[in-house]
Design a protein that fits this description.
Residues 34-65, 91-124 have a biased composition (Basic and acidic residues). This protein has helices at 3-73, 78-112. With 133 residues, it is mainly α. The chain is rod-shaped, with a radius of gyration of 28 Å.
């Protein structure tokens, strides 16, 4: 085998390696972009649902305030106040459950998004209850 044949084989191998590397790089970039788009969609869904959860939280707070007022008015209205407190607790439970689910979705979006610097650090925990999403 001549020297020029060996050189052509080496050049061909280098070109093939370069092409494979370029294809892998393009595939990785496409995957990262697809994941970023998916994470953005999840964030948009969270933002849309966050308004509904805020309304639930407001209803829960309003109901709890009304329950406290009725309780203070008279013992005659104790039964009504108890029912309102139960209703407020149910709203609060639903709102808390929804908020926890939204936080999990937001953390999931951060975990799969390659553009988020620290995806292992959740922004909120179930103990935290942010009022402004």
């Amino acid at each position: 085998m001549s020297t020029s044949s060996i050189i052509w084989i080496i050049v061909a191998v280098v070109v093939v390696i370069a092409i494979v590397a370029a294809l892998l790089w393009v595939a990785r970039n496409r995957r990262d972009e697809r994941r970023h788009i998916e994470a953005e969609q999840i964030r948009e869904d969270v933002a849309d649902k966050s308004l509904q959860v805020g309304e639930r939280e407001a209803r829960a707070e309003e109901t709890a305030a009304k329950a406290r007022m009725v309780q203070a008015e008279a013992d005659a209205k104790a039964a009504e106040a108890s029912a309102l407190q139960h209703h407020a607790a149910q709203h609060r439970k639903e709102a808390t459950s929804s908020r926890d689910e939204l936080n999990q979705q937001r953390d999931h979006a951060d975990t799969i998004d390659p553009k988020v610097p620290n995806p292992e650090e959740p922004r909120s925990t179930p103990d935290q209850n942010p009022r402004n999403p």
